[in-house]
């Protein structure tokens, strides 16, 4: 029997910044190079605050495809009948309004991380997406990568026992002499480390702990956090946060584990980015934390905690930079009429936003003291 043709998802791209360039480049990688044969991606429209920028983006990143529409407003992309799904790559504080407009135009939505700037915005978007009957997902690309899928199988087959502690950090040296108007420095654009970099340490805590079968999807029992805020604009530069999961008779969770997480915007990333410590071994994930290409599993000798009896490293390679796997998930969900992903569903974005709400509240009105 001849194989059926792949499902084509037609994308409208909102904004022409750094991440939009990366995501569109990956959308155009032939899916067959990653052994995907059931879905393909087509960019049909690009929207920018300037039509010239949209056209330049198409010339540079969509191989100058003349059929792709360049628009000088985002609204025209939402209204385009040749667009099925909208990708949103604007600064954090615009995600809510951009996603809301797209959803109300009955478009499916993939929205960059952090999906919104608080859980109230997110809950309202999810309600609207359900009302309009459209798919809605945060672009937490790490969750869909082949490394993650493989790691989860191994972490949950019982060999390593229960997870106990996760350590994860994601840092990036943005250079704190950035202009105050740069999105990382500007509170009005959601600047600071926690909203931009914080989702990545947290996604590993979510994968290793929240998603662990013993947790029964139970929310954390406790969150702590501390921040160093930059005097120039007051955004957080370095943030440490812990997320604890306690056994919960009400949900049936037996997980007792803690994630110790951090993010910084003034220092380079280091490796390993993530260490997941189990009763009977350790998983060490090489940086970069958003898109690692290898991990090592250390198995302890039976009855000898901490004594490594065997070590195994797995490496992952593919064409492109790793953003295409989330797009394949969107295409499959849209094809199958799903409103959310089973891998990164609405509950996980809500968990993320609730953790960040708490991290912010714990540091609200707390200014860093300076001693000179
Ligand atoms: N998944 C990932 O790996 C990843 C990596 C980096 C960033 N991100 C996320 O993607 C989002 C954008 O980050 P980015 O680094 O791509 O930012 P960026 O380079 O500054 O691009 C943001 C784009 O948003 C549009 N925009 C709309 N209103 C704006 C405003 N008031 N100020 C500035 N730009 C505005 C602009 O495009 P037009 O002028 O064309 O409208 C701009 O080019 C953030 O939420 C960030 O967390 C994700």
UniProtKB/TrEMBL annotation:
Keywords: Oxidoreductase. It comes from Serpula lacrymans var. lacrymans (strain S7.3) (Dry rot fungus). Residues 9-137 form the Gfo/Idh/MocA-like oxidoreductase N-terminal domain. It holds the Pfam family GFO_IDH_MocA. The keyword Oxidoreductase applies. One of its GO terms (molecular function) is D-xylose 1-dehydrogenase (NADP+) activity. Residues 149-283 form the GFO/IDH/MocA-like oxidoreductase domain. This is D-xylose 1-dehydrogenase (NADP(+), D-xylono-1,5-lactone-forming). Belongs to the Gfo/Idh/MocA family. PANTHER family: OXIDOREDUCTASES, TRANS-1,2-DIHYDROBENZENE-1,2-DIOL DEHYDROGENASE. It catalyses: D-xylose + NADP(+) = D-xylono-1,5-lactone + NADPH + H(+). Its EC number is 1.1.1.179.
